[in-house]
Amino acid sequence: MKSILITGCNRGLGLGLVKALVGLPTSRPTHIIATYRDPGTSGELLELAKQHSSIIPLQFDVKNFDRYEEFAKSVESALQGDGLNVLFNNAGISPKSTRLNFTKSDDLVDTFVTNTVAPIMMTKAFVPLLRKASDGNKDAPVGPHRACIVNMSSILGSIEANVDGGLYGYRTSKAALNAATKSMSIDLKANKIMAVAMHPGWVQTDMGGSKAPLTVEQSCSGMVNTLLSLNESHNAGFLQYDGKGLPW
């Protein structure tokens, strides 16, 4: 895996994934392209990039759809002629409203745009670079060393596992993202580009809260190990951070 693009890296899981990748003992990616929105809240990422030449921080808001073409060209330039091996659609939000009587339409729309529409449009924008990586590594097996899309999902997006209700914006946006992941796995299969949905576990982030059982480091280390072990049999899979399959 020579290159990976991760969205939403100013904090939380995105930043944790960057740290896990640069901390790999061997086979570290040559290019770790990490997006952030606000320099004022991305100090740790920007400082880390000064210490590791493989980290390329790029300021970008995934909801700014008018800039997708321009952003893709910036990534292409950063890759210096190579394709993109992995697109990790990590950026996401969770609305404060939980139960039905507190749910607001604006929250639903905003969550759906960030958690579902943006990953779909991001994937659309980067298919050419993913295809370039796949075509340039025809001897490599299907997987992250060739071309792969990882969509950060959640067990809360599982319809079968929903026994508590509520969380309308988050649950529906992640369930929709799971459906999109399945379509990507079918539509891009001929190009040897695979797609999976990944659940990071319940993690101690701003979204997960302090009572979560997993640290960011534990979750991200597991996700990176799982990512590196992906093969064609995992295409269209819904996987936990440790590689365990999850119900749709």
Number of helices: 6
Task: Report the sheet with the most strands, covering strand number, pairing sense and barrel closure.
Answer: 7 strands, parallel
Tally of domains: 1
Strand content: 5-15%
How many individual β-strands? 7
Protein topology:
Layout: E1 3-6, H1 12-22, E2 31-36, H2 43-51, E3 55-59, H3 68-78, E4 86-89, H4 105-136, E5 148-152, H5 168-187, E6 194-199, H6 216-228, E7 238-240
Parallel strand pairs: 1-2, 1-4, 2-3, 4-5, 5-6, 6-7
Helix pairs in contact: 1-6, 3-4, 4-5
Describe the protein's architecture and organization.
With 248 residues, the chain is of the alpha/beta class. The chain has one domain (3-240): Rossmann fold. 39% of the residues lie in helices and 13% in strands. The protein has 6 helices and 7 strands; from the N terminus they run E-H-E-H-E-H-E-H-E-H-E-H-E. It has a 7-stranded parallel sheet, with helices on both faces. Strand 4, helix 4 (105-136) and strand 5 (148-152) form a beta-alpha-beta unit. The longest helix has 32 residues, at 105-136. Pfam families: adh_short (PF00106). InterPro entries: Fungal_SecMetab_SDRs (IPR051468), NAD(P)-bd_dom_sf (IPR036291), SDR_fam (IPR002347). Keywords: NADP, Oxidoreductase. GO terms for molecular function: carbonyl reductase (NADPH) activity.
Q: Which short descriptors sum up this protein?
A:
7-stranded parallel β-sheet, SDR_fam, Rossmann fold, oxidoreductase, Fungal_SecMetab_SDRs, 7 strands, 248 residues, NAD(P)-bd_dom_sf, single chain, carbonyl reductase (NADPH) activity, globular, alpha/beta
